[in-house]
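User: I'm curious whether this sequence folds into something compact or stays loose and floppy. Could you predict its structure so I can see for myself?
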Amino acid sequence: MELYPAIDLRGGAAVRLVQGDFGRQQEFGDPVDLAERYEAAGARWVHVVDLDAARTGVAANRAVVLEIARRTGLAVQTGGGVRSAADAAELLGGGVRRVVLGTAAMSDPALVAELAARHPGAVAVGLDHRGGGRDVSVQGWEQASGTTLEEALERLEPVDVAALVVTSIERDGVPAGPDLEGLTFVLSHTRHPVLASGGVRSVDDLRTLAALTVGDRQVAGAVVGRALVDGSLDVAEAVRACATSA
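Assistant: Here's the prediction. I'll summarize afterward.
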């Protein structure tokens, strides 16, 4: 299982929200410095989200995303405002390893198929859901898409995406533990690699995620934000826990 330290961007700063609430924000300084610290601790990937762009579609923090790709050796996975072929091309051409489509994946499924074919291995889909999968949220988690998690998984099954980044919004930014029930459902309904996001608070949570098995399917990666940035979970220890999971 791979560790994906998460950096959320708002107004050029690294921030964390609580359950996707833009009114409940804490700042954590310079995002490039934070990425460099993650790299120094042994991380290989970083998951970067432009929160401003996720809400508006305007790539307010794209320069910061590209700076992280330029100044570190991390494989950058990024989402938030990736809503066109031009957006994907700019990011991938600037050194980003993988782009994540969320809102666009719900509103324009053909775009996901087009980009996945054009950029093999470099296009993922973010499935951010509430209410146990009753609805996949879009527009920075502020709007309902009208699509259930099950419907989204069915739609994406024939498309060769690199991964599904699955976030339980109610668990994001809070020490609630990972959504094992929801992840079990996802693993049983898709062939795609699944990256679990939301709720991880400890090494034990990472080990629990790594041990989650549905048939021959397991979680491929863990996206961890607040626990790493506030120091309650040591980055190097988290990297080791993921690397030694089986």
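Summary: The radius of gyration is 16 Å. Residues 2-243 form a domain with the TIM Barrel fold (CATH 3.20.20.70).
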